[in-house]
Amino acid sequence: MTKRIDDTTRYQRLLDRYREGDLDRRSFLGLIGAAGMAYGMQTPFAKYASAQSVGQVRFDGWGGVVSEAFREHAFAPFTSKTGTEVVDGTFSGGDEYLAQVRASQPGEYNIAHLSGVFDYARYANFDLTTALNLDNIPNMELVMTRLVEPYRAITPDALSAVPYDYGTTGLAYNRKYISDEEMREKGASILIDEAYKDRIGGWSDWRTRVWYGALQTGQDPNNIEDMDAVWDAIRAHRDLALKYWGSGAELMSLLAEEEIYVTEGWSGRIAALQEQGHDIGYYDPPNGFGWQECLFVIKGSPVAACEELLNFMLAPETSIAVAEGQNYPPALDATKVDLGAKIPTLPAFDATGTLSGLTFADPAYWNGNEADWSKTFSRVQRGY
Amino acid sequence: MSVEAREARQPWILLSPALTALVLLLFVPLLFIVVYSFWLRSAAGADQAGFYLDNWREALGDAFYRDILLGTLRIAAITTLVCALMGYPAAYFIARSKGNKVLLLLLLMLPFWISYIIRTMSWINILGTSGALNSVLLSLGIVSEPLRMLYNETTVILGLVHFLLPFMVLNVYVSLDGIDTNLEDAANSLGATRWQAFTQVTLPLSLPGLAAGGLLCFVLGAGTYITPLVLGGPRDAMFANLVYEAIITQLNWPLGSALSLMLLAVLGVLVAIYNRYLGMAQLAKGLG
């Protein structure tokens, strides 16, 4: 079988020819320039190609240890097996990524590691969904039904994503300064405890701020009745916080360098810090922020190739290896698949396959308030 | 075609690639932003095309945006002043040094070889709780516990000065380098002290360079959003951060467009004032 060469290989061969003297510098630069021009000229029209060949699929994720796990345990073996290259990009937040996708041509972005059901709903609102044929993804049978239901409620006719993992945004704290007992006693209110002024952190994400504001004021995050009290709690946190972090890497750095002692944090990242030997505790308070992540296929993508990749990624051996690498439990049902020794020890792991112990954001409720709350948070953050 | 007509066409032919790039990469996108600023963000999240003044009413009438804009101009002004105070002596030293001028200019350009974000983040390793400065202070026994130096407005200004200082030095250097040193000698021979010669001859002649550097520092400083994001605390934000949040976080492209045009207009007025009194030629000289 003849293996199709990709653009990187073409470039490498050209570079080798230039280095070996088979090609003069002018010709080399001319060819590179011509290739760039050809790409630039054809890209806007690429969507009209009726028989687009698929040598690569673009995947975008959260970067850091998460992307490393995906690269090592999923993409590299998939490329070896199928010859299809997975081009892997990163983003620091779902909002930023959605803005990029909206500004792109169909087909430019293919699969995204999206967080929360509300992201799935937002992509559906922007008409960015595609229709997956689940017959081509037989490993979907191993996935917890509880994780599929919320997506089906949004797009009843066909899924545009497969669930992949889940986790929580709980409380992370430095055990050198805060004991486990104190954390359990104070719960979410520790983030507005004056004793830790300038040693408190927080994610700059408005959803997380509002969620924890609701917990600090004793309200149900999916049915907030006193929003003014929540904004006051967010103001109190803002005045005590040293820094709002904007990425998982920044979260890990702030905790590891002891710039902050307590913050809310992503369960997998905190598990990674613990693995690195830092004495960081992790606690999910009652009604802590649970979330599920999916692999979302964006409208205009080569669906068959994407389905093949998704099925490969959901295969137990791949899924378990990725989960162990990124420290988030996989979407596979523990009652159907033996998940090994490490995964049951990860934060937020659910052995029952029902996820009844976690509280998820109600997508209709949160997306319905998004415009108002995200704007208000921008003001509250700046002292209003 | 006459020789005159051919000569008249030549500059336009030579300029056509640059003009085409300007039109396609600057004016057309700007036009899109202008159009977008009159659209509305619908409740579902999708944009609603039309001609609505709501975004402009909000951008111009809301005290929140006005306050952040004024705060941004204040931070940019402080940064420019610090750059001028630090940059002028450095530029003077380079301009008047003999022999090692090329090396000094090379050192000045050195920071540009490193990414702006990396340069900004380097301050975390210098000023952080377990950073270089605190480690030295602790090991020398000067302080008993680490000083809190990061994530406030001062560190934002520090990061901006770090980023913008070379622009100031280069502009002032170009201006000083073009001044005939015989003028200072002449002032001295007529009885002026060295300080008087500097304040009454060199400084006035170098003011166009200082102004060009000031304009660059101010405009670039006022338009930044990375520095407050990396080195600022929860409250520290500049106007560009609001544009970023409107477009990226809130997905409200119409309001973000209106806000970005507002910032562009304010900075455009400053550039126009500069051009009216000093002309853009000095700026081109400094950048060249």
What would your notes on this structure say?
Chain A has helices spanning 7-19, 25-42, 64-82, 94-102, 116-125, 145-154, 180-186, 206-216, 227-240, 248-256, 267-275, 303-314, 316-326, 363-381; strands at 56-61, 85-90, 111-115, 161-174, 200-203, 241-245, 262-266, 280-283, 289-297, 359-360. Chain A folds into two domains: 56-166 and 291-360, Periplasmic binding protein-like II (D-Maltodextrin-Binding Protein, domain 2, 3-Layer(aba) Sandwich); 168-289, Periplasmic binding protein-like II (D-Maltodextrin-Binding Protein, domain 2, 3-Layer(aba) Sandwich), CATH 3.40.190.10. Chain A starts with 6 loop residues before the first helix and ends with a helix. Helices cover 45% and strands 16% of the residues of chain A. Chain A is globular and about 70 Å long. Chain B is an all-alpha fold. Chain B has one domain (50-287): MetI-like (MetI-like fold, Orthogonal Bundle), CATH 1.10.3720. Helix content of chain B is 75%, strand content 1%. Chain B has 13 helices and two strands, in the order H-E-E-H-H-H-H-H-H-H-H-H-H-H-H. In chain B, strands 1-2 form a two-stranded antiparallel sheet. In chain B, strand 1 (40-41) and strand 2 (47-48) form a beta hairpin. The longest helix of chain B is centred in the first third of the chain and has 34 residues, at 3-36.
Identify the CATH homologous superfamily of chain B.
Answer: MetI-like
Largest interface: A-B, 33 and 28 residues
Strand content of chain B: under 5%
Radius of gyration of chain B: 24 Å
Head-to-tail CA distance between termini of chain A: 65 Å
Radius of gyration of chain A: 23 Å
Oligomer: heterodimer
Question: Any idea what the CATH architecture of chain B is?
Answer: Orthogonal Bundle
What is the terminal-to-terminal distance of chain B?
35 Å
What structural category characterises the helix and strand content of chain A? alpha/beta
Low-confidence stretches of chain B: none
Q: How many helix segments of chain B?
A: 13
Mind telling me the CATH class of chain B? Mainly Alpha
Family (chain B): Belongs to the binding-protein-dependent transport system permease family. CysTW subfamily.
GO cellular component, one term (chain B): plasma membrane
Subcellular location (chain B): Cell membrane
Transmembrane segments (chain B): 12-39, 75-95, 102-118, 155-174, 210-231, 251-274
